């Protein structure tokens, strides 16, 4: 299953920040579908079960609101990478991030974790943050809370087996198809993690184009969605290597996503 529809149903473009006309054009179809998605989103009270159940091992007080901003705001952005770990592109991406001293979030596909547990340990050793992206990358928008919980717990179990003790701070629904997943994620101590900017690296459009989309599309405090798995992500890796120094030269800092919405 590919990531083709993920951004179209995400929370990315829903913010009210001023954007260029070109970006508005890019974002319009996304905005329409995001609006439909948001109609089903509930901004629920903080989950009580969170940490006491000890199953999510994220952090206490996670809420069902979808976070799509950085921790510190201002001229910052947070890089997030979905669908790995991948035996080719994840190690290359980790090397690029290490070279530039950038910490990112990795939203892990449970079956890929099972196949490549050593890569999860490498991600943790690199000081990056883990995010649950479900076992099989299913669209869960119509799933019952019980089925969602079973999948999320199974994914966390795989991650724990691969990297014992490493917290799983966030959850991201495949395709941004949230349905009832935010409430369940919060109960398990994981903050739902959306995005404000997706750059279509699943196409893939060429490294230079990816660089341009990030550099021109980023807004203050944006969580940015890219991919290190689910296909050939070599352009993404090369783009990140170029994006970091370009943005830093313009005064941007690389931050983590906010803990709460
Ligand atoms: Zn995905």
Describe the protein.
The protein is an alpha/beta fold and 261 residues long. It has one domain (7-254): Glycoside hydrolase/deacetylase (TIM Barrel, Alpha-Beta Barrel), CATH 3.20.20. It contains nine helices and eight strands. The chain has helices at residues 21-39, 50-53, 89-100, 110-115, 117-125, 145-162, 181-187, 207-217, 234-249, and strands spanning 76-82, 105-108, 129-132, 168-171, 191-192, 197-198, 222-227, 253-254. Strands 1, 2, 3, 4, 5, 6, 7 and 8 form an eight-stranded parallel sheet that branches. It is globular. Mean pLDDT is 85; it is low at 1-5 and 7-55. It binds zinc ion (ZN). Residues 3, 6, 82-83, 133, 137, 174 line the site of zinc ion (ZN). Zinc ion (ZN) is lined by residues 3, 6, 82-83, 133, 137, 174.
Short summary:
The protein is α/β, with parallel strands linked by helices. Helices cover 39% and strands 12% of the residues. Strands 1, 2, 3, 4, 5, 6, 7 and 8 form an 8-stranded parallel sheet that branches.
Which outline best applies? globular
Computed CA radius of gyration, to the nearest angstrom = 17 Å
Q: What is the level 1 CATH name?
A: Alpha Beta
The tally of helices reads 9
- Describe the biggest sheet? 8 strands, parallel
CATH superfamily: Glycoside hydrolase/deacetylase
**Quick check: average pLDDT?**
85
Strand content: 5-15%
In terms of per-residue confidence, which ranges show pLDDT below 50 for 5 or more consecutive residues? 1-5, 7-55
CATH topology: TIM Barrel
Task: Tell me which CATH architecture applies here.
Answer: Alpha-Beta Barrel
Q: Percent of residues in helical segments?
A: 25-40%
Tell me the domain tally.
Answer: 1
Number of strands: 8
Helix/strand class: alpha/beta
- CA-CA gap between termini: 29 Å
Give the names of the bound compounds: zinc ion
Helix and strand run: HHEHEHHEHEHEEHEHE
